[in-house]
UniProtKB/TrEMBL annotation, chain A:
Pfam family, one: BPD_transp_1
Gene Ontology annotations for the cellular component aspect, listed alphabetically: plasma membrane
CDD domains named in the record: TM_PBP2 (cd06261)
Keyword Cell membrane appears in the UniProt entry: yes
Boundaries of every ABC transmembrane type-1 domain copy: 59-245
Keywords carried by this UniProt record: Cell inner membrane, Cell membrane, Membrane, Transmembrane, Transmembrane helix, Transport
Family statement: Belongs to the binding-protein-dependent transport system permease family.
Compartmental location: Cell inner membrane; Cell membrane
Record field: transmembrane: 63-85, 97-116, 128-148, 169-195, 224-244
Annotated organism of origin: Hymenobacter actinosclerus
Protein's UniProt name: Putative spermidine/putrescine transport system permease protein
Membrane topology: Multi-pass membrane protein
Keyword Lipid biosynthesis: no
Gene Ontology BP terms: transmembrane transport
UniProtKB/TrEMBL annotation, chain B:
Name under which the protein is recorded: Putative spermidine/putrescine transport system substrate-binding protein
Pfam families: SBP_bac_8 (PF13416)
Signal peptide: 1-23
Signal among keywords: yes
Keywords, in A-Z order: Signal
Annotated source species: Hymenobacter actinosclerus
TrEMBL record, chain C:
Matches recorded under PANTHER family: INNER MEMBRANE ABC TRANSPORTER PERMEASE PROTEIN YDCV
Protein name according to UniProt: Putative spermidine/putrescine transport system permease protein
Entry keyword annotation includes Flavoprotein: no
Lineage of origin: Bacteria, Pseudomonadati, Bacteroidota, Cytophagia, Cytophagales
Lineage: superkingdom: Bacteria
Annotated localization: Cell inner membrane; Cell membrane
Species for this entry: Hymenobacter actinosclerus
Entries under PROSITE patterns matching the protein: ABC_TM1
C-alpha cells in the first residue's frame, strides 16, 4: 500500500510538468482564476511549422551545436584521457579537469568574453561552441579517464605485441572495449550543451538563439504558450535518448 | 592523422565567422552620396541590436520590416537581442580590440546614446544623408533632444512615446489623478501597486520626482547634484513610508515589465505602466489585458521621449544600415508602426511635410480607443532630464528601496 | 596509438589558460586598467568592498540555498534507498527517476513558476475549491524571501539523481546481503541503516554530492526566474551587476566576478584534496 502510494506520488510529481506545459502550450487567454484554459488554440504550434517565430531554427541550432559539442568533446576527451594516463603526474591533470566544475557557466562566459571578442568569435556559433567545449571537454576527459586507467592500456600493448598496427589496435580492440563508455560520454556532453542557458546567453550576445535562449525570451515577454512550446521541444530529444539508452543518462564523474 | 579530419569542421566553423569585409573608414563612408550609399548597401546583411521584450515590436520587425528591406534592397536584416549597457560593453570591447563590429545598427536612447558617444562608438553625423530625414519633425524638442542632449545627426529619431498608467476600470473606479494623490490611493488599496525595477519603472520614478519638486525646469540642462539629492531624497521617503502597502508589502519588485503586465492581467495588481502610450490598445486587442483596461497620464504629467536608431562606428555594413534606417523613417513604415494593432508607436515625422494623401492616412489610423489622445496630453508632457538622473535613480532605488539601506552619505 | 606530445599542453591552454586569462582580465578590470572606461590603476573599488554588503549577502544566500537544496535531496534520496528498497526495484520506479534528468533547469524554473506563483495553477485550483478566497491568501512559494521556490526546483532536479546514485552504490556494495548478515548477528534494521548503510553510501557518494553542492552554489537559470531582485544568488548578482545601466559600476562587477571565481576555485581544490585523501584511506 505504502509502496503504491509512493509510486503514485512520484508518477504525479514527474508527469505534472509535462501536463502543465502541454496545457500552457495550447491554452488561450488563460488567466487567474480559471483552473483550465477557457479556449484552446493550436496557434503557437502552427507558428512552429510556419517558422515565423524562429522556434524551428532554434531547434536546429540547438541540435547542431549540442551534436558538435558532443562529438568534439568525446573524441577530444578520449585522446586527452589517454595522454593523461601516460603523463608523468596524471593526478595533476585529473585535478585540472575538475576546474570547470568550480565556475558557474555564466561566470565562465563573462570571464572569457573579452577574449572571445578578440578572437572575432563574439556572437557566433563558433564562440558558443568554444565556450561549451571548455565545459564539455574536461567532463568527457574525466568520464573516459576510467577507461584508460583500467586494463585498456595493457590490452592495447597486448594487441600491438600480437602484431596489430596502431590503427588496428584502435579499431579492433580499443573502440569496441570503450563503446559503452563512449556512448555515455556522447549522451552526457550532448545534454550538457543542450541544457545550457547561462553561457550561451552571454557568449551569443543574443545572436545564437538556441532553444534555451528562446525559452528565456518568451518568459521575459510573458508569452507562456510559446515558452511552453519551446520548453517541450527542449525536453523531447533527451526524452527520446532516455527511452533509447537509459543508463547513459546517469552521470558519475 | 585522425585528429586533423576531426578538427576541420571546427576550423571551418571558426573561419566562417571571420569573413570580415574590408571596410571603408568612417569618413569615407560618410563622404558618399546617397546613390553611392544605395549601391554599396544593396544585397548586404545588416545586424541590428534591439530590445526584444515586446512580442508586437518583435513581430513588426520580423514580419514587416525584415521582408520589406529584403524585397527593396536585398538586405538580410538579422535582429539580435541587446539593450543599454550590454550594447555599450560589447561595442566598447570591440573598439578596444580594434576590430570591426558584430553589429551595424542599434536601437538606443538616453544614457545608451550618451555612453556610446563617450566611447566614440557611433558613426555620424549621418541623419542629413537620409532622403527621408527631410520629413522628420526636428523642430519638436521632444524629438530633436534626447535626454537633454542634442542628437546632432548622430542618431535618427524612430518613434515618440509617453509614459502612462494603465488600470482596469472594472476594478478601480477612481484612479489617482495626480502623483500627489498616489500615496493615499496606495494606502487605501494595499498590495495593488508596485514599481518595475527597469527602464519603464525608472521613467515613472523620474516623473514622480519631478512632480514632487513642482518645478520641471529644475531638471533641464546638465545633471545637478543638489537638485537630485534633494528631490530623490523626498522620493525615497514617500516610497519607503508607503512601501508596506505595495505589492508583496514592498519587499520585492518585478525585474521586468512583462511580468508586471502579467500580474496586472491576472488581477494581482491594479496598475501597470507603459512607456508607449498606445500599448494599452494593442494589449487589449491581443486580449492580453482585459477589455476594461484604460490608460491615462496623472498630473502634473509624465515624461515624453523619443527612441532612436544609431549606426555603429565599426559597422561592416554602414551603407546597408542607412538604407534600413531610411526605410524605417519612410511614411509607409512609420504609418504601419503607429497603428495600435501593429505597435502603436507615435510617428516622428512632421505631418505637414507629407503629401495630403499620406497625411490623411495618418489621420485615419484606427484611433486609440483606450489610451489618451495625444492632443489631450499637450500640457502633460515632461522633458527627459539628463541621463545621469536615470543612472542614479536606478542605483539608489536598488540601494534605498529594494535593499532597504538607510539613506545617508 | 602513440601518445601525442602537444595534446596535453593544448588541453591545459584551453581548460586552464582561457579561464585564468579571464580571471586576470577581471582583476585588471577591477582596478580599472582595462574596460570601456579604463582610466589607469585605482584601488577605489577594492577599498569600497567593505561598504558594499551586497556580495557577502549574495554569498550567504547562495550558501543557504545550496545547503538546503543538497541537504534535503540527500535526506530524501537516503530515505528512499534505505526504506523503500522493494519499491525502488519494482517496475515503473527506476525508469521514473530518470525523468528529471531530461529536464533543463530553465524549464523546471518556468514550470514551477507557472505551478506555484500566486496566479499559478495550484493557486487557481485552490481558489476554485474554495480553499483560498483571493490571490493574496495563497502562500508565497516562488520569488519569496527565503528562496523556497529555488530550493524546490533544485531538489526536484537533484534528489532523483542522488537516489539513482545511492541505489547503484547500494547494489554494488551488496548492502542487502550485509543487511541480512547484520540482522542474523542481532542488529536491528534501524541500527543497520544508521551505523552501516547510511555512512557507507554517504562516504562513497561524497564527491558527487559535493559537486552538486558547488553547482547549486553557482546556479543561474533557476534563481533568475524564481528569485527576487534582492537577495540574489551569486551568479545572478554578478550577471545583473555587469548589465547595469551605469558603466561606472563595471569595475565593481569585475571585482565581484574575480572574487567569486577565485573563491570557487579554492573550494574545488579543497574538495579534490579531500577526495584524494579519502581514496588513499579507503585504499
Amino acid at each position: 500500500m505504502r509502496s503504491k502510494l509512493l509510486t503514485a506520488f512520484l508518477i504525479l510529481l514527474f508527469a505534472l510538468p509535462f501536463a502543465l506545459l502541454g496545457l500552457l502550450a495550447v491554452g488561450e487567454g488563460w488567466r487567474f482564476p480559471a483552473a483550465l484554459p477557457p479556449a484552446y488554440s493550436l496557434e503557437p504550434l502552427r507558428g512552429l511549422v510556419a517558422g515565423g517565430n524562429g522556434l524551428l531554427a532554434g531547434l536546429g541550432k540547438s541540435l547542431l551545436l549540442a551534436s558538435a559539442v558532443a562529438v568534439l568533446a568525446t573524441v577530444g576527451g578520449f585522446v586527452v584521457a589517454r595522454a593523461v594516463v601516460g603523463a608523468r603526474r596524471p593526478g595533476r591533470w585529473t585535478a585540472l579537469s575538475y576546474l570547470p566544475y568550480a565556475l558557474p557557466p555564466v561566470l565562465l562566459a563573462v570571464l572569457i568574453q573579452p577574449f572571445i571578442i578578440r578572437m572575432h568569435l563574439s556572437g557566433s556559433v563558433g564562440g558558443v561552441l568554444l565556450g561549451l567545449l571548455l565545459l564539455a571537454l574536461p567532463f568527457a576527459t574525466l568520464l573516459l579517464g576510467s577507461f584508460w586507467s583500467q586494463q585498456a592500456t595493457e590490452y592495447e600493448q597486448l594487441a600491438r605485441t600480437l602484431g596489430c598496427t596502431p590503427g588496428q589496435a584502435l579499431r579492433r580492440v580499443l573502440l569496441p572495449l570503450a563503446a559503452p563508455l563512449l556512448r555515455t560520454t556522447l549522451v552526457q556532453t550532448f545534454l550538457l550543451a543542450w541544457f545550457d542557458f547561462g553561457l550561451t546567453n552571454v557568449l551569443s550576445v543574443g545572436k545564437v538563439r538556441t532553444l534555451t535562449v528562446q525559452v528565456f525570451t518568451y518568459v521575459g515577454e510573458a508569452n507562456a504558450p510559446l515558452a511552453a512550446v519551446a520548453s517541450l521541444l527542449l525536453v523531447l530529444p533527451p526524452l527520446l535518448l532516455l527511452l533509447a539508452n537509459k543508463s547513459a543518462l546517469l552521470r558519475k564523474p | 592523422m585522425k585528429k586533423t579530419t576531426l578538427l576541420l569542421p571546427l576550423l571551418t566553423l571558426l573561419a566562417a565567422c571571420n569573413s570580415g569585409d574590408q571596410a571603408k573608414s568612417p569618413d569615407q563612408t560618410l563622404a558618399q552620396s546617397w546613390p553611392q550609399i544605395e549601391a554599396a548597401g544593396k544585397g548586404q546583411p545588416v545586424s541590428m541590436l534591439m530590445w526584444m521584450g515586446d512580442p508586437l515590436i518583435n513581430k513588426y520587425m520580423s514580419a514587416y520590416v525584415k521582408p520589406e528591406v529584403q524585397r527593396r534592397y536585398g538586405i538580410d536584416l538579422q535582429i539580435a537581442a541587446g539593450q543599454g549597457s550590454q550594447i555599450v560593453q560589447t561595442l566598447a570591447a570591440e573598439l578596444q580590440a580594434g576590430q570591426p563590429s558584430e553589429a551595424d545598427l542599434v536601437w538606443i536612447n538616453g544614457e545608451t546614446f550618451y555612453q556610446l558617444r563617450q566611447v566614440d562608438a557611433l558613426l555620424g553625423p549621418f541623419v542629413k544623408k537620409l532622403p527621408n530625414a527631410a520629413l522628420l519633425d526636428l523642430d519638436n524638442p521632444f524629438i530633436s533632444t534626447d535626454f537633454q542632449q542634442p542628437i546632432a545627426g548622430m542618431e535618427a529619431p524612430w518613434g515618440n512615446v509617453q509614459l502612462n498608467f494603465i488600470y482596469d476600470s472594472a476594478r478601480v473606479a477612481n484612479p489617482p489623478n495626480s502623483f500627489a494623490e498616489l500615496p493615499a490611493f496606495v494606502r487605501a488599496h494595499p498590495g495593488q501597486f508596485t514599481i518595475p525595477n527597469e527602464f519603464t519603472g525608472m521613467t515613472l520614478l523620474k516623473s514622480w520626482m519631478i512632480a514632487l519638486s513642482g518645478q520641471p525646469k529644475l531638471f533641464q540642462g546638465k545633471f545637478d547634484e543638489a537638485v537630485y539629492d534633494q528631490w530623490s531624497g523626498e522620493l525615497w521617503q514617500v516610497i519607503n513610508q508607503n512601501r508596506r502597502y505595495f505589492w508583496k508589502e514592498g519587499r520585492t519588485f518585478p525585474e521586468q515589465l512583462a511580468p508586471l503586465h502579467q500580474l496586472f492581467a491576472n488581477g494581482e495588481v491594479a496598475f501597470t505602466f507603459s512607456n508607449n502610450d498606445a500599448e494599452v490598445d494593442n494589449k487589449v486587442n491581443q486580449k492580453v489585458f482585459p477589455a476594461t483596461a484604460r490608460a491615462y497620464v496623472p498630473a502634473p504629467g509624465t515624461i515624453r521621449n523619443s527612441h532612436y536608431l544609431g549606426i555603429v562606428r565599426g559597422a561592416r555594413h554602414p551603407e546597408a544600415a542607412m538604407l534600413v534606417i531610411n526605410f524605417l523613417l519612410s511614411p509607409e513604415a512609420q504609418l504601419k508602426k503607429m497603428d495600435p494593432n501593429v505597435w502603436g508607436d507615435h510617428t516622428v515625422l512632421d505631418l505637414a511635410a507629407l503629401t495630403p494623401a499620406q497625411r490623411r492616412q495618418f489621420r485615419q489610423l484606427p484611433s486609440r480607443r483606450y489610451a489618451p489622445r495625444r492632443e489631450n496630453l499637450t500640457g502633460l508632457a515632461l522633458q527627459e532630464p539628463d541621463p545621469e538622473y536615470m543612472t542614479r535613480l536606478f542605483k539608489d532605488f536598488r540601494t534605498y528601496v529594494i535593499e532597504g539601506q538607510a539613506i545617508g552619505k | 596509438m602513440k601518445p601525442l606530445k602537444p595534446i596535453l599542453p593544448l588541453y591545459a591552454l584551453l581548460v586552464l589558460g582561457l579561464p585564468l586569462a579571464g580571471l586576470g582580465y577581471a582583476l585588471l578590470g577591477s582596478v580599472v586598467v582595462v574596460g570601456p572606461l579604463a582610466e589607469g590603476f585605482t584601488g577605489r573599488y577594492w577599498r569600497a568592498l567593505g561598504h558594499e554588503p551586497g556580495l557577502g549577502y549574495a554569498a550567504l544566500y547562495s550558501l543557504w540555498i545550496a545547503v538546503a537544496s543538497v541537504g534535503l535531496s540527500v535526506v530524501l534520496a537516503l530515505g528512499l534507498v534505505l526504506r523503500a528498497q522493494p519499491t525502488l526495484r519494482r517496475a515503473p520506479l527506476p525508469g521514473l527517476l530518470y525523468v528529471p534528468l531530461v529536464l533543463p533547469a530553465l524549464v523546471v524554473a518556468f514550470y514551477l513558476f507557472q505551478l506555484l506563483s500566486r496566479t499559478g495553477w495550484l493557486s487557481r485550483i485552490s481558489f476554485q475549491l474554495g480553499l483560498t478566497s483571493s490571490l493574496e491568501a495563497f502562500p508565497e512559494l516562488v520569488q519569496d524571501g527565503a528562496g523556497l521556490g529555488i530550493i524546490l526546483a533544485h531538489v526536484l532536479l537533484i534528489f532523483p539523481f542522488l537516489t539513482l546514485l545511492f541505489q547503484a552504490i547500494y547494489q554494488e556494495s551488496r548492502l542487502a546481503e550485509l543487511d541480512q548478515l547484520t540482522s542474523t548477528l542481532g542488529a536491528s534494521a534501524g541500527q543497520f541503516r544508521r551505523r552501516v548503510a547510511a555512512p557507507l553510501l554517504l562516504r562513497r557518494a561524497a564527491p558527487t554530492v559535493l559537486l552538486s553542492f558547488i553547482a547549486t552554489l553557482g546556479a543561474y537559470d533557476i534563481p533568475l526566474l524564481l528569485g527576487r531582485p534582492y537577495p540574489q544568488m551569486l551568479s545572478v548578482f554578478i550577471a545583473t551587476k555587469l548589465q547595469r545601466f551605469d558603466l561606472r559600476e563595471l569595475p565593481a562587477a569585475y571585482l565581484a566576478g574575480f572574487l567569486v571565481a577565485s573563491g570557487l576555485l579554492v573550494l574545488i581544490l579543497v574538495l579534490l584534496r579531500l577526495v584524494n585523501r579519502s581514496r588513499v584511506e579507503t585504499g
